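Narrative of accomplishments. A recurring question from our advisory board has been how the design workflow behaves on a single, concrete structure rather than in aggregate. To address it, we present the structure tokens for one chain from the evaluation set, followed by the sequence designed for it. No filtering or post-editing was applied between the two.
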């Protein structure tokens, strides 16, 4: 018997309609129909949920002939590889975005000719970089990227924020401008990076726990 028929029989024995099962599983009725007609296969998480919902064992739902078993195993393996690939891509995009923005800001700060308008310094230093760091750390922790290695975001933020130069505000005629001064280390800004990254990770961890509940 194919897995689709097993899912259909289990649902019928439980006295559930496709609409009711779909609502409890968080999928569409069409998805349930496709699974039961073997037009597509449910992922392993959905199979586990249906096992609990229909009060049947996983062995009962997945115990098939050798051909069917191999087909479903191939599907699960392909799905797992796809999820891993998307997760790895997300990690690369997040980290790359942060470092590209940081490098761009550093190039602008260190190669600017003379002075720069104070508002631009405020946007780059106190809005763009902190907001981006907060978003990335929350996302990393919420999705549990890197496992315990996610805490390396804190020293990483400390190092990148440490290299941002001090600024000195002055007035030239009627325009408020900023002159960049190299003072190493930039402890105050480094402390800000540490605080932002730590708060972001803690918020992401809390978000992850709430989603699991």
């Amino acid at each position: 018997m194919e897995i689709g028929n097993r899912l259909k029989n289990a649902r019928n024995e439980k006295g559930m309609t496709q609409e009711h099962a779909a609502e409890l599983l968080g999928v569409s009725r069409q998805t349930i129909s496709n699974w039961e007609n073997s037009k597509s296969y449910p992922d392993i998480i959905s199979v586990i949920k249906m096992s609990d919902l229909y009060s049947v064992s996983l062995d009962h739902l997945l115990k098939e002939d050798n051909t069917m078993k191999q087909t479903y195993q191939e599907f699960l393996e392909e799905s797992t590889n796809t999820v891993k690939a998307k997760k790895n891509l997300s990690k690369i995009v997040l980290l790359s975005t942060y470092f590209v923005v940081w490098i761009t800001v550093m190039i602008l700060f260190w190669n600017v000719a003379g002075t720069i308008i104070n508002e631009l310094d405020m946007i780059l230093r106190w809005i763009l970089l902190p907001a981006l760091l907060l978003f990335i750390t929350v996302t990393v922790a919420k999705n549990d990227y890197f496992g315990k290695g996610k805490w390396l975001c804190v020293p990483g933020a400390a190092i990148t924020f440490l290299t941002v130069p001090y600024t000195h505000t002055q007035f030239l005629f009627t325009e408020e401008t900023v002159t960049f001064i190299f003072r190493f280390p930039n402890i105050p800004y480094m402390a800000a990076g540490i605080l932002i990254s730590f708060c972001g990770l803690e918020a992401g961890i809390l978000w992850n726990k709430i989603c699991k509940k």
